[in-house]
Structure prediction request, 128 residues.
Amino acid sequence: NMSFTTFLENEVLDHVFRNASYTPPATVYIGLYTTATGAGGTGTEVTGGSYARQSMAFDASASGAIDNTAAVEFPTATASWGTVTHTAVLDAATSGNMLAETALTASKAIGSGDVFRFQAGEFDITLT
Prediction:
């Protein structure tokens, strides 16, 4: 299960209960991490080896959940990315704010020549 970060929790609470403005990002990006992420938006993101965050589109929410509408494929690694253990949704292609984060169900070592991808419908976000 993806967890909202403290940043997004505060934005949603202020928006809903205080009528404070929150402008959601036009595009959200998926980042890969080799260490645990957390509510504070931390973790060690993959760098180098042609790594770049990828944009992801989601379907309309239903029953408190959304998932990705199309497959998302990261560039072919040109060097080792290490072992990816976590992923996060961010509001920018670089820097920005982490919105939600989670551990992968299984860690994945990414070596040179490997491609990391999420199939359509495989990346789920649920509010519980």
